[in-house]
Every structure is written in structure tokens, then in C-alpha cells.
Design goal:
This protein has about 300 residues and is mainly beta. Helix content is about 10%, strand content about 45%. The strands form 2 sheets. An 11-stranded antiparallel sheet has the order 4-3-2-1-11-10-9-8-7-6-5, with no helix packed on it. Strands 12-13-14-15 form a 4-stranded antiparallel sheet, covered by helices on one side. Strand 1 and strand 2 form a beta hairpin. The protein starts with a helix and ends in an 11-residue tail after the last helix. The C terminus is likely disordered.
Amino acid sequence: MWISNILKTGVDMMLPKSVSKRLIKPRDHNAPHGDVGFEGHYTRMHMEDDSTFAFVTCWVNNAEKNPYLVHTSLTPGPIPNRDPDGHVIGWKREFFPKSLRKIQHEKENVPKTLQMQPFTIDVDGVGRYSMEQDEQTYDVWFRHPERPRDEYQVIAKLTDRIPWSPSRREALKGPESHLVHLGTLLPLHWYVFSMRSKAECLIKKNGKEILRLNGYAHQEKNWGQGFPKGWVWAQGTSKDGQKVLALAGGKILGGYAFLMGLRTPSMDWDIRPPWEQVDQSKMDHCAQASSLISTPNMDKDPHHR
């Protein structure tokens, strides 16, 4: 298996895309893999009032206990919204659902050149989200952690997605590019499904609408055998949605490596190993990314972890 993975990586690196695409069948790495140690999807919506809605699902194959985890949170902006009862609209909940179903859709309406695999993740007692080519939808419900009588529901729709690669010929390309073919030779993989999407969000409390918000969303995924002990992650979107940044990296396989994508009307940057491998004494690219995040034109809260 590892020999095949290395050969795929070499073919994708050395041969013209028109040739390598015929030899290597493209795979939608945003769709569930099923043959890995763990995987998880992460969505962050930065809304017009500077609030942040986050939704995470992940699962660990062959786990003895609690193989599924769901996180949902709404972090209020500087001026919090309040519901009709005067409560601040915000929460942080984590669940260990009993089941999580991965449902693949038929690809009838997806152009063959894109090869995207539409799917739905259905989480027992929490909700579901669906990934289609042109639209992604979320329907999540839960009880407030401090007021269990109050049931909240979040309904969101994401459209106008900007994928990592703007080229339709490389519609499934992610931050790793050819390195993704290394498979289990790398302990962890990262895929960005959307650098930026338009987000519409409706929040209900006990069945009644209490808030509507618009903003921008970021969608990504990790999979592999596990996370390193330390890592860096950052993501940001400008107020007008025209400037977006995604960065991830840390110590892996004995060295430091970073993946970064920056999209603006005048810049289209990709940084990835081995050409931009970062050593411990000179982390220029990480410093550049930090500078970009902190500029006045980018959001002040990149929601890091």
C-alpha cells in the first residue's frame, strides 16, 4: 500500500495535470473515508454581528467508549443579541451521541468533471448536515446547558462556496495537493472544503424564531491516525468576504511544516511542504500569516485553536 501511495505522489508531482489525472482517479476527501483511525468535520460561521457559530462532528473508529463527539457553540459578538426573555443568545454544548450515520447521495446532478461525493451526516438526537456541490445545509437542535427547559434550533444554509482551488479542473484539490496521496504515511491530513461561503442562519427557541443572521462560513476536515502534541491553526475572513486565510501546521515526522492558503482580489497564495518546510529557528511563513491575520483589513478574531 505505501509503495502505491508514494508512486501516486510522484506521478502527481512530476507529470502534467492533464496526464496525472488520467492515471490517478480523483477522490473527494471531504466525503467520509471510513478506512481511517479518525475523521471530523468543522464548520465556522462568522456572522455580521461578530458572533461565531461553530459546529464540529468527529468519530474515532474502533473506540471502546464514546466513538462520536459533537460540538456546537455560539460565541456572542461585542454587543450580544438577547432573546425575548432577556437572555443572551449564546451557548457551548458537547455531546457523545449513541450513533452517527454517514449517508452518501447519488451523484446524478454532479458534473462528472467535479467528481464530488454529496453526503449527509445524521447525528442521533442532535441533528444533521448535508454537503452538496452548490449548497450545504445544517439543522441542529439541543437544550440550553443552563436552562434545560429551553430548546434551541439552528437552521443554516451555505452557498456561493469558494473552494481551495479556483480551477474547475482541480475542483477537488485541497491544501495538501499531491501530498494527500501519501495516505497513512502521514499521521494527519487536512482538507478545506470551503475557504469562504455565504451563510444564512436562523435561530429558534422553543419553536419560535428569535434571530436571523447573515455572514460567511469556513468548512474543513481532518482525518488520519491522530493529532500531533502541538499544532497551530488559524482562519479568518474579512468583513466583505473578499479576503480569506486558512493555516494549519506544527511538528510532524520530526520537522515543522505548515499549510496555508490566502485568497484576496490581488493574491492567490498556497504554501505547503516540502518547498516551504519551516525549521525551528526561522518560521518566516508562520510570521507572515500572523501578520496577515492581525492587519486591520482582516477580522480581529480569527477563532484559533
